[in-house]
Design a protein that fits this description.
The protein has 191 residues and is mainly alpha-helical. The chain is 79% helix and 0% strand. The chain has 9 helices and no strands. It has helices spanning 3-22, 32-39, 43-49, 53-70, 78-91, 93-103, 105-131, 137-160, 167-188. Helix 7 packs across helix 9 (167-188). It is elongated and about 60 Å long. The termini are far apart. The relative contact order is 0.10. This is Probable dihydroxyacetone kinase regulator. GO terms for molecular function: DNA binding; kinase activity. Residues 31-50 bind DNA.
Length: 191
């Protein structure tokens, strides 16, 4: 087995351990000692892979969700990407609620924001090409910020208040907003 494969297997074992521990205790109460004991690795191995438990958490969310979403053609497959995100949130609501309860809404939203800003920027750039125009950098940043804040907030609302919207309604609403408002706003700002 190559070093890369061994490293990936170790990281996945740590992720599984973290998820299991979060079923029984708050994220903020989980220690590196518990993780390494559960995975039968030493402390040095943990810190070789991750700076801290937040680094493990970030890697886990990126591997399970963010990197998968990045593989979609977001201009064409936005709806499929959003269905994946909703399914992920539903399947991992206990885990996401545990993180939410430990770090708070603002920190979790900031975490999602950092991962989704690039995706939103891609959607906006592709829409600029699609409509054949460009917008100012300042306005592009504003749109990225606006849509990313909205998406991050709605993802948190999704697992905090799962009965507020049906899955089908959320998919329809996001699809309508993303497919109609972004091109319209870009066209209205032609330089």
């Amino acid at each position: 087995m190559t070093h890369k494969e061994t490293s990936l297997r170790t990281k996945k074992a740590l992720c599984a351990s973290l998820k299991e521990l979060m079923r029984h205790k708050a994220f903020s109460k989980i220690t590196v000692s518990e993780l390494i004991r559960d995975c039968d690795i030493n402390r040095k191995t943990f810190y070789y892979h991750f700076e801290d438990i937040f680094g493990l958490l970030k890697w886990m969310l990126e591997q399970e969700a963010i990197d998968v979403v990045k593989q979609f053609d977001l201009l064409i497959d936005f709806q499929d990407a959003f269905v994946f995100v909703i399914d992920y949130v539903e399947a991992n609501s206990y885990f996401l609620n545990c993180i939410y309860n430990s770090v708070g809404r603002d920190e979790l939203k900031r975490f999602f924001y950092q991962d989704f800003i690039g995706l939103v920027e891609t959607i906006i750039s592709k829409n600029e090409k699609k409509v054949g125009t460009t917008i100012s950098d300042g306005f592009r940043f504003f749109l990225c910020d606006l849509y990313t804040e909205g998406i991050a907030g709605m993802i948190i609302n999704l697992f905090q208040h799962p009965d507020k919207y049906t899955k089908e309604d959320l998919i329809d609403y996001f699809t309508i907003v993303m497919h109609n408002s972004i091109p319209a706003v870009i066209i209205s700002q032609k330089q």
